[in-house]
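tokens incoming
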């Protein structure tokens, strides 16, 4: 039997195991908002770019929150920033755990989720999708630190991953958003 490369790829897709808790599309995810009562339905953002960022709950002020806020305002209608609260990288020195756990006001215009795991065996399904080429069809990655950024295009495809040290004001980030 003569197989084409396309046929082999289709067979590979059929027989590749997929985790049951990881939907095929970013638009299939629904996550709990920070206020605990409402839900963020990512399918509501179809047709817009989505910048998903793991944000620390323990920082009261950080220029990256302000930069993300300004980015959301600048590209309103074309881009939505979604902050996913995570504490994998610890509590900032001098801060009490209780302050971090009870914080709900981040003075931002973009949606923020309740706390999720972004690494390890209890990783949030959204981050499994974002960090595994098996699901996102772009690349495998690892969340390195707070403010790692994942850009999803208007069709729901992961198109870029930006290191935590890269500001959203970086020309590379702006070019990817404006593309």
């Amino acid at each position: 039997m003569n197989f084409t490369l396309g046929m082999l790829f289709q067979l590979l897709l059929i027989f590749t195991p997929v985790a049951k808790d990881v939907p095929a599309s970013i638009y299939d995810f629904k996550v709990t908002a920070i206020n605990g009562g409402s839900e963020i339905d990512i399918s509501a953002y179809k047709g817009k770019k989505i910048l998903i960022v793991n944000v620390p709950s323990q920082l009261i002020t950080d220029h990256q929150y302000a930069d993300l806020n300004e980015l959301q305002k600048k590209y309103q209608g074309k881009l939505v920033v979604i902050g996913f609260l995570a504490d994998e990288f610890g509590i900032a020195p001098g801060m009490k755990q209780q302050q971090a756990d009870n914080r709900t006001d981040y003075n931002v215009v973009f949606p923020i989720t309740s706390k999720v795991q972004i690494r390890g065996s209890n990783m949030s399904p959204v981050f499994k999708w974002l960090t595994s080429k098996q699901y996102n069809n772009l690349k495998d990655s690892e969340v390195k630190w707070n403010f790692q950024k994942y850009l999803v295009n208007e069709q729901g495809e992961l198109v870029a991953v930006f290191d935590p040290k890269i500001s959203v004001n970086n020309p590379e980030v702006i070019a990817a958003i404006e593309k």
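note: Residues 15 and 148 are 32 Å apart (CA to CA).
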